[in-house]
Specification:
2 domains, Nucleotidyltransferase, domain 5, single chain, about 20% strand, about 325 residues
Length: about 325
C-alpha cells in the first residue's frame, strides 16, 4: 500500500505538436518524464464523435507506457488547449480542433484509464505552476503567458487561479492587436496568436515568399544569421505581445508578468520590443512598474500546474466583480 508521501500524479501538458508527460510527487519533484510527438492541430474530423475518438486515442496511447511503469500514480492532471467550463472537465471548444464541442474530456479519459482525471486550460495550469514553483513564489498576483503553437494566458489573483464566470478568462491570445488583421482559428481576426505564436510567426515568414521554414526555431535561426525578414517578424511579435500585455495590465493592475513556452527560445529578439511596447501603452501611473519575467521553469510550468491540479483535487476559482 502506498503511503501519502509516495502518491504521485501523472501530469500532461498537451500542445499542438507534442505532449509532455511527467510523474510528479507532492513536493513538485519530477520523478520521470517523456515526450510524444503528436498532431492535435492537424486533426481533421468530420464529426464530434470522430474528433473525440481521435483525441482519446492520442492521449491514452501517450500515457500507456508511463502508467505501466509507475504503479504509484493515483491521479492524472491534464493541461489542454481550449475553453473549459469552470472545473467540470468539459471542453467547450478548442480553436485548433473545430469539431470538438462540449466534450467531457476528464470523464471520458478517466473511464479509459481507470484513474481520476482533472483537466483544465493549459495556460491556466502554466500560470499555476509558475506561481507555485517559479517566479511567483513570493507574489500574490501573476499574469502568465504561454508562447507555443498558440498564445495562452492565465491569471493568479490572491494565490488562486482566476477562471471567470464561465471558465474562459484571460484568453489573451484572442485579444485583437491588428484590426481586420489575420484570420484566427477562433473565428475572429487580428488576434495576438496569429502574430506572436510559433505557428503565426512561421505563417508570416512563409507569406513573405520564404518557403524554407518549417517551425519557429527555423525562423529564429535565420534571424540569428542576419535574415532581416525573420528579425522583423520576431520584432513585430514582441511589439504585439507588449501591446496585449499592456491592455491586460490596465484592466487588472497586476504588476508581474511571466512568459513561458517554446518561443521564449527567441527571447533575445522578443524581450526588448515587448518591454518597449508594454511601457509605451501603459497609463502614466503604471509606467515602469510592471516587471516582465521569462519563466524560470521552462517547459515544466504546465506540467507542474497539471500536477498541482491533480494532487490537490482541483482548485476553487476566485471571482472579482
Amino acid at each position: 500500500m502506498n503511503s501519502p508521501e509516495n502518491i504521485c500524479a501523472l501530469a500532461l501538458d498537451v500542445g499542438g505538436t507534442n505532449i509532455r508527460l511527467a510523474v510528479v510527487d507532492q513536493s513538485g519533484h519530477i520523478i520521470a518524464r517523456q515526450q510524444c510527438n503528436t498532431s492535435l492541430s492537424h486533426i481533421h474530423a468530420s464529426s464530434d464523435d470522430q474528433a473525440e475518438t481521435e483525441i482519446l486515442r492520442i492521449l491514452t496511447s501517450s500515457i500507456a507506457d508511463i502508467l505501466a511503469s509507475h504503479s504509484h500514480i493515483h491521479v492524472i492532471g491534464v493541461g489542454f488547449p481550449g475553453f473549459f467550463r469552470q472545473e467540470t472537465g468539459i471542453l467547450v471548444s478548442s480553436p485548433n480542433i473545430p469539431c470538438l464541442l462540449d466534450f467531457p474530456l476528464a470523464e471520458r479519459l478517466s473511464d479509459a484509464v481507470s484513474l481520476p482525471v482533472h483537466v483544465q486550460n493549459d495556460a491556466t495550469l502554466a500560470a499555476l505552476g509558475e506561481f507555485r514553483f517559479g517566479i511567483g513564489r513570493e507574489l500574490k498576483n501573476l499574469l502568465h503567458l504561454t508562447l507555443g503553437t498558440g498564445v495562452g494566458g492565465g491569471l493568479i489573483l490572491n494565490g488562486i487561479p482566476y477562471l471567470g464566470e464561465n471558465g474562459m478568462a484571460v484568453e489573451i491570445g484572442h485579444s485583437c492587436v491588428v484590426p481586420n488583421g489575420r484570420a484566427c482559428g477562433c473565428g475572429g481576426s487580428g488576434c495576438l496568436e496569429t502574430y506572436a505564436s510559433a505557428s503565426g510567426i512561421v505563417a508570416r515568414y512563409i507569406e513573405t515568399g520564404h518557403q524554407d521554414a518549417s517551425n519557429a526555431e527555423d525562423v529564429y535561426r535565420k534571424a540569428l544569421d542576419g535574415d532581416m525578414v525573420a528579425e522583423r517578424i520576431l520584432h513585430e511579435a514582441g511589439i504585439y505581445l507588449g501591446q496585449a500585455i499592456a491592455e491586460a495590465v490596465k484592466l487588472l493592475d497586476v504588476h508581474n508578468v511571466s512568459i513561458s513556452g517554446g518561443l521564449t527560445g527567441a527571447w533575445s529578439f522578443l524581450s526588448e520590443p515587448i518591454r518597449t511596447s508594454l511601457n509605451e501603452k501603459l497609463i502614466p501611473p503604471l509606467k515602469g512598474k510592471v516587471r516582465l519575467h521569462r519563466s524560470r521553469l521552462g517547459d515544466d510550468t504546465g506540467l507542474l500546474g497539471a500536477a498541482i491540479l491533480a494532487l490537490e483535487n482541483g482548485f476553487r476559482p476566485v471571482y472579482v466583480f
